[in-house]
Write a structure and sequence with these properties.
Length: 255
């Protein structure tokens, strides 16, 4: 077994709880601005999360929930791209306003890993600017450079659950899956990371808690802190009660 060298972090749902009160709200602001009478409720958005990627999610909504609505079929790509551009604007505004914090334990874990010399990467479906704004707002502008690779958005054509984005990040870092651990929050994310042959730790959230994580090695409700222990949903964390480097080494070695 090779040594654990790198940690590959998903963003949405994993580093921050972005979907319900972040992305969803920004989509609705864009619809409102464009005079479109869609309201993506918390429940409906949960159904739309089966599709990763914001533009793809808009198209999925049109194709599955808008039969008979006046959206010119040939222009659907352009329509979704334009609407998504405004959604990103509103989302970045929320990040800049500090409305979206990191999840419990994320900052500590990233800083501990960095101090111990682990290599770090971001592996996400979301738009690249969403990542840099989140990092800047929560960890400071310099934190963007803590991540050797930020693999995001349309950089690979096939988004999660395809393994391509993880493979892209590992290629860029000249690492194999045996060198890395992945962190995810959703079934689509785990299908992507496990599809890339990566051991994966899952931190669930409100939208994903009931999903199928059979490919993951450990499923917990949060990274946690020493005084805020996680709850284990699947797997074995030995003596550890929050996600720390000792636990990651243990998971990597398969103990
Ligand atoms: C995240 C997503 C993203 C965001 C929206 O999936 O699906 O699409 O919801 O981002 P994952 P954009 O956490 O599995 O990477 O609107 O910028 O596409
Ligand atoms: Mg995610």
């Amino acid at each position: 077994m090779s040594k654990l060298k790198a940690l590959l972090f998903d963003v949405d749902g994993t580093l921050a709880d972005t979907e319900r009160d972040g992305h969803r709200v920004a989509f609705n602001k864009a619809f409102q601005e464009a005079g479109i009478d869609w309201d993506w409720t918390v429940e409906h958005y949960g159904a739309l999360l089966t599709v990763t990627g914001g533009k793809e999610r808009i198209r999925y909504h049109v194709e599955n929930y808008c039969q008979g609505d006046a959206i010119p079929e040939g222009d659907l790509m352009q329509f979704s791209a334009d609407l998504h551009k405004r959604k990103t604007y509103f989302y970045l505004e929320m990040l800049q306003n500090g409305e979206i914090p990191l999840r419990v334990g994320a900052e500590r874990l990233i800083k501990e890993a960095r101090a111990a010399g682990y290599r770090l990467a971001i592996v996400t479906t979301t738009t690249p600017a969403n990542v840099s704004y989140l990092l800047t707002a929560t960890l400071g502008k310099e934190s963007i450079d803590w991540f050797e690779v930020i693999a995001a958005g349309d950089i690979v054509p096939a988004k999660k659950p395809a393994p391509d984005i993880y493979q892209y990040a590992m290629n860029k870092m000249n690492l194999t899956s045996a060198d890395c651990l992945a962190f995810e929050d959703s079934d689509n994310g785990v299908r992507s990371s496990v599809g890339a042959d990566l051991k994966t730790l899952v931190t669930i959230n409100g939208y994903t808690h009931a999903q199928d994580f059979s490919g993951a090695i450990l499923v917990v409700d949060q990274f946690g802190e020493s005084d805020q222990p996680f709850t284990i949903l699947k797997g074995n964390a030995g003596d550890e009660n929050y996600v720390n480097l000792a636990l990651l080494e243990q998971l990597h070695q398969g103990i």
